[in-house]
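Reminder: ligand-aware prediction takes two inputs, not one.
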Amino acid sequence: MIGVLVSGEGTNLQALLKAGLPVAAVASNNTKARALDRAAKAGIEAAAFPAIEFDSREHRDEELADWLTERGVELVVLAGYMQLLTKPFLERFPGRILNVHPSLLPAFPGAHAVEDALAYGAKVTGATVHFVDEGIDTGPIVLQEAVEVLEDDTPETLHTRIQQVEHRLLPTAVRLFLEGSLSSPVASA
Ligand code: GAR
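Here is what comes back for the chain with glycinamide ribonucleotide:
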């Protein structure tokens, strides 16, 4: 079973659902994430874990990991989850967390990858699915695909084309993981 972590719109969550992947639970750091409504509409258990309601990020992440485990989650997918996961969470899902990011990593990590690629004048950017480690958008790369930057692109037009790629790449990577076709970056996973 898959647990999906989201912070915003949830178009990547929608792509996972459309692909018929076994999403058991959806959680967010943001109570107002539209992705939570999408989950509820699809009849999937959804909950928010805002950091402000816990005495530490680590404590929040432990509760979040418990909640996912109770729902049978074995693979965690970060689909637009915009907070760094702390060590207690990473240790609960070793080699079993995937993230989708709107650039060709290791170029342009962070929360403003599309704006950063445009500001740098990159002619090509893209989308990446990778295993998550303790860094910001670091960890072994699973799939990548390039997207050309057009002369008149705005952050919105470029992000829209990158997301079209993400919506193909992320379900493909998740399917490969569930089939056992991805080699885990962690020996014990
Ligand atoms: C996606 O484009 C994803 O790559 C990006 O947030 C967007 C979420 O869209 N993630 C990051 O930038 C992570 N560093 P969505 O909520 O519609 O799926």
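The chain has a mean pLDDT of 96. Residues 6, 8-12, 35, 79-80, 100-102, 111, 113, 137, 163, 166 surround glycinamide ribonucleotide (CB under 6 Å). We will return to this case in the review session.
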